[in-house]
Amino acid sequence: MRTFLRIGTYWLAMTLLSATVALADDLLNGTWVLDPSACTYNPGKVRKSDTRIYTFTGNKIHMSGDAGFADGKKIHAEFDAAYDGKDYPVKGNPRVQTIVMERIDEYRSKATTKRDGKITAIGNRVISKDGDTLTIASSGTDENGVPNSDVLVFHRKK
Questions:
Q1: Beta strands at 133-141 and 30-34: parallel, antiparallel or unpaired
Q2: Residue-number span of the structural domain to which 35 is assigned
Q3: Cβ–Cβ contacts within 10 Å for residue 75, how many?
Q4: 93 in a domain, yes or no?
């Protein structure tokens, strides 16, 4: 019985360590700066700037972002979430109350944002094989219920 418990404890410790290392090595980790000339909006709110910092602690992703729009509005948004398909609160974005994160593979993940329990957008993130470009293609509705879709392109800040 003791051998079984030692093996079980070892397995659990190695699994938790592997998950922590995997998140720390996540390609999303780092600072990403928007390339406004590479983005498309249909109709969407055109962004003049957007910088996002993703950091990982344990099994959680922390995102802190500052965006500036063509109409002069600015937002600062933050969240802490895990790749577990559960809702996590988002601070600072008037259109979004929660985010759900799902990891597809090393290069791709999916984020679903909600307000009042209703989906506002679904975004698919793809990181280039060289790890230097992040593309987020999202579709949803604005605060007036008008459908929109955006493709945002970011480059890793070195």
A1: unpaired
A2: 27-156
A3: 15
A4: yes
Residue 143: other Cβ atoms inside 10 A: 9
Question: Who's near 81: CB < 8 A, 6+ residues apart?
Answer: 60, 61, 63, 88, 99, 100, 101
Q: Give yes or no for a cis peptide into 147 (omega within 30° of 0).
A: no
DSSP codes of every residue in 98-127 = EEEEEE-SSSEEEEEEEETTEEEEEEEEEE
- The pLDDT-based confidence of 40 (bands split at 50, 70, 90) is very high
State the total domains in the chain. Answer: 1
CATH of the domain at 73: 2.40.128.20
Do 65 and 50 touch, CB atoms closer than 8 A?
A: yes
The reply to whether 124 falls in a domain is: yes
**Phi–psi pair at 125, nearest 5 degrees:** -100, 135
Q: Is 68 among the domain residues?
A: yes
Scanning the structure block, which residue is given the tokens 């209703």? 118
Residues 125-150: pLDDT tens digits? 999 999 999 999 999 998 888 999 99
